[in-house]
Structure formats: structure tokens, C-alpha cells
Amino acid sequence: MFSRFLSPAYRLFMTSASQSPTMKLVESTISENPVTVFSKTTCPFCSATKSLFSDKFPNVPVKILELDLLEDGPAIQSYLAQKTGQHTVPNVFVHSRHIGGNDSTQAAYQSGKLSSMLKI
Fold it and tell me: Which Gene3D superfamilies match (predicted)?
């Protein structure tokens, strides 16, 4: 029972009243956008992911949050690590489903899974 209190999954399912502003920002951004990319401006893998969406899916709205330009960027990245287990960027969500980083996103595109998820 004690481990339940330490579990990242348990913390994620707390009531919205107890959510921090960072949690609310991340969750609302993910749920309100077809594609959300948590990125950093200096990351080459982030650039590759953003290019994939702009080149291959130009009509799909993509919300990009550049964590290195946001005051609460480190807190957002920390929350994403708890939420997804992924500590790196890019951190990609499609229709609220976590895809992963650049490698996973590129693989999803190559396999046709990404197009299917975007209904294209």
C-alpha cells in the first residue's frame, strides 16, 4: 500500500483540484491539440520531429512548446518524465496518446501508423 503513494501513475490520477499549474498546462495542451510536441530550440532531434510534421502533415495543427524558452520549462519536463517515463525531448503526443521521442515518431511515420492516427 505504501508504494501506491510513491507511484508516478498514482500521482497522475489525482483529482484535478490537486493538480499543479504545470500539470494543468501540460494536460490541457495535450488534450486540446491534435499534435503536441514538447521541444527545445537547440535539439537536433526536436528539429527532425518538427520538420516531419511540417513537411509531411502541413495541414495538421501542431502545438509546439519550446521548453528552453519557457520559465517553467524544467518543471514541465520533470512532469513529462513522471507522466511518460521519458526524460528527453522531443516528447510527442498525438490525439492525447504518447508517441515518444523522435525515433518513435519517425518509425510511426515510416510504418504508416502516424498517418492512421492522424486519419490522413
Answer: Glutaredoxin
Task: State the Cα–Cα distance between residues 111 and 68, nearest whole angstrom.
Answer: 31
Who's near 96: CB < 8 A, 6+ residues apart? 30, 31
C-alpha cell of 89?
A: 525531448
Question: Would you give the DSSP letter of residue 88?
Answer: S
In the CATH hierarchy, which fold is given to the domain comprising 19-118?
A: Glutaredoxin (3.40.30)
Q: What is the mean pLDDT of residues 70-80?
A: 98
pLDDT-based confidence at residue 19 (cuts at 50, 70, 90): confident
Nearby residues of 59 by Cβ (< 8 Å), 6 or more positions away? none
**Burial label, 2 (beta-carbon count in 10 A; 0-12, 13-18, 19+):** exposed
How much is the average pLDDT of 59-68?
98
